[in-house]
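With this grant's support, we have settled on a layout for protein records. An illustrative entry appears below exactly as we store it:
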Amino acid sequence: MVFMFNVDLVKEVLSQLLKATETIQKRIKTIKCPDDFLNNERSLEKLDALCMQLIAVGESIKNLDKITHRTLLNKYPEFEWKKVYPVK
């Protein structure tokens, strides 16, 4: 069975994923060890913000899997998708 999906929507989700991962990379540049997140209130806020970005990544991948009718992620079995979000 061949599934059709909205390519523009897939591109939008991929764009959101890229933005979130770029934000994560930018925010952790100054982090050298886990304790760097615990230094002060600002560090804890950075940790909170990073957690939200990681949640956004997981949700975006979950949405990507849904809108592609579970066909796109299955093309890349070498990646452990279950570590990003629980794939059924």
Q: What stands out?
A: The helical segments are 7-27, 41-67. Residues 31-88 form one domain. The mean pLDDT is 89.
